[in-house]
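Lab notebook: predicted structure, single chain.

Context: the supervisor wants predicted structures on file for every construct in the current expression panel, including those that have not yet been purified. This is the next one on the list. No modifications to the sequence; it matches the entry in the shared construct table.
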Amino acid sequence: MALGRTDTWVQECFCKWNNAPSRATYDIDEPAAEPRQLDPESDQDAILILLASQLARIVCRAIELTAFSWLQKELSSHGPNPKTTAKTADFLQQLGKTLLTLRWRVSWWEIIETGDNNSEEQKGGYIDRVKSICRILYVYYFIARRKLPTWSGSDLVSKNGIYSEYMDAEPIFETLPYDESLQGFEQWMKEGHDMIRQANVPERLAELFSVSG
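Prediction complete. Output recorded below exactly as produced.
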């Protein structure tokens, strides 16, 4: 499934998709009828909701694969050349944001929930898959960072972190990868759990669902 775009739009779309709300609703636009929201309490709509959720997964996977392919291509096009420094800094920033959103997704699944009724084995399978993607992009991050001179003025090099805003969470400052080793990667991923708590996600979700319930 091709999305037809291979520029930074793909990465922005990927990050936004990872930052989707913890809940989803689906509308249906039927011929000769007003659009309406599908009702999960309706047996008829329940089937359509299941279909819509599966289609959303397929689209998300297509975005993921396209974004991953774009990152591989972009990584090979950057080098320690003054003419490409600004472009490399932009690429590094986009790669850093992608890593943070993926870590957030994994941490959310591990601490809060995965949002489906799959078995623990199935849940562990796709959590491991996203972790594997994170591990690869973690390596890419340091390859790209080595190509960016320290005098470039990039905030990612000087501050090594950015402020992030996620759905159902308070704004937080997140540290980007800092240790180019397997142990460093594992520690950085564990820190994602702290980000979930620092953003007061459990409290905000508890308040949200108590109001909606």
